[in-house]
Amino acid sequence: MDYREQMKELRDTLNRHGYRYYVLDDPEISDYEYDHMLRQLEDLEREHPEEVTPDSPTQRIGGKILTQFEPVEHAVPLESLQDVFSSGEVAEFGVHMEEQLSRVEYSVEPKVDGLSVALEYRDGVFVRGATRGDGSVGEDVTENLRTVRSIPMTLPEKLPRLIVRGEVYMSHKVFEELNAMRELKGEALFANPRNAAAGSLRQLNSKIAAQRRLDIQIFNLQLCEGQTFATHEETLSYLASQNFKVIPHRVVETIEECQAEIAALNDRRAEFPFDMDGAVVKLNNLIDRDILGSTAKSPRWAIAYKYPPEQKPSKVLDIVVQVGRTGVLTPKAVVEPVRLAGTTVTNASLHNQDYITEKDIRIGDTVIVQKAGEIIPEIVSVDLSKRPEGTTPYHLPETCPVCGAPVFRDEEGAAVRCTGAECPAQLLRNLMHFVSRDAMDIDGIGPAVLQQMIDADLVRSAADLYSLREEDVAKLERMGKKSAANAIAAIKRSKGNDLSRLLYALGIRQVGAKAGKVLASHFRSFDALAQASLEELTEIPDIGPITARFVLDWLESSQSRHLIERLRDAGVNMDCLEKQINSDFEGMTFVLTGSLTRFTRQEAGKMIEARGGKAASSVSKKTTYVVAGDNAGSKLQKAEELGIPVLTEDDFLEML
Length: 656
Description:
The chain is about 35% helix and about 20% strand. The protein is α+β, with helices and mostly antiparallel strands.
């Protein structure tokens, strides 16, 4: 088969299966088969880049980096809807419609809580996507929208021009997975799926947007050249035939039926993969819409009913504490079952100790529960009039409920954390950090593989990595013999890493890569570090009293000592391997600025540290010398103002 024919066949097959998976939710092949075909297409496109087409599924992975989003003027304004908040206002809308029109039909749809966008197609090919903006002008986010798998890149019917409007969202499942991964990496969590979707769609790097797995619901036909329709329902049916993911909807004839459908949607909220903050009621007849027109702000033929936050009383049966993957202790109230926003709630978040103390929540209290952001149940208030006698204020435990290690409270913030080096609750996070590039640099073992190892009970701590067998790793999903051999080889190589990498890999609080180097260079062995006093640690440049205290606390932990002994038994190096040439620069601080020609700043910094000195990034009164290359700027100026000696590269080399 000719390579062009092969590429077309792969594109068509992949697009067909992608449609079944992402739009119909009815896959016909496994993920493995899909990925295998995608790899084939990627290889062919790499060999024949001139044959890459806009509808190729490889174009959905992102990678293009923008410097800004260009403005887009909407051909048809993306109007906002008038909000209503009661059944009475819905009824008023119905009366108003029926007074002006002879026969009325309504379409009732869930209101997706996401970001509104317009998608434009020319001759059946997706050419541009833009955010709503102010309704008249939005931002061009085409590259990011290409990564949304449920948006078709080409349409079966090649109309001259087609513009549709939809709501981009992040599904509940993806949101939970994204926040779980951000927690593992120590990154700030997204507050809700809408915020996550908004941040993802406005990424200048489309590869990041692709990783966020956004989705879309199409809810309106904005412009169509070459087709005419009488009703909104006809337009949605047509868009579905063009492979769009169309909003669920129901057409009814009376406003009473609208109200019943609004209530039914509220009861079914848990069935939808997206957040919904209301229901949309709009006229079905398109001619009637044109007759009624719009105000300066919104169309007269549609309203958005906003669901009020549902609140109900319940009773706190117990307070349990969960330990997150970063070691944070999170209290949760076990409450008597109560129905909220379409689901039965049996637990409510208590956030942290400050939240419990502020609201004075106790076991046995009658409380008011609601769903925060329509997702997470939380306690709003306590009914003190119903508080039983004998209740006592609640306080988080002083030791980890999972491993028994002491806990501490963050200096800044309300989080209480477990200090256990081998705490099972933190295992995945600790392993991810241990194998990372700046730590032990064990290539080929990512989060997914580590999770499989944990699930298969192959590892219970970082030390277990060094007793893994190649045949056990090869059995893991998508590993195989060669990948397993590479992983085991990388693990063995890591045994010879410098002590500085090990110190960083251990996850000691406030000991980053730089502090690891400082400690390793100063003590030269782990045993010497283990014997250090608080005073000795504090006297080391770059190791302040807080970091010193964290180091000592970690070293004194029984879990830490156990982990170190197991790593030592496995043959992991415990000594500083970097040769210290001399200590001529001890107590000196150098700042490097401008363009250096003999070496890079990083190379110069290593030479300074090897002689006991410190390479800093900013000039201060504590700076000993500034090494200035060509085009030195503000740092040179500040050095001159402070009277700090300035060295040329030749001067610096002479000192070395």
